[in-house]
Amino acid sequence: MARRKKLYEGKAKILYEGPEPGTLVQYFKDDATAFNAAKSSIVDGKGVLNNRLSEFFMTGLGNIGVPTHFLKRLNMREQLIRAADILPLEIIVRNFAAGSMAKRLGLEEGTALPRPIVEFCYKDDKLGDPMVPEEYIIAFGWASQQDIEDMVALAVRVNDYLFGVMYGAGIRLVDFKIEVGRIWDGDYMRLVVADEISPDSCRLWDIETGRKLDKDVFRRDLGSLSDAYSEVARRLGVMPSSVTHATRPTIVN
Question: What span, in angstroms and rounded, lies between the C-alpha atoms of 55 and 251?
Answer without folding.
Answer: 12
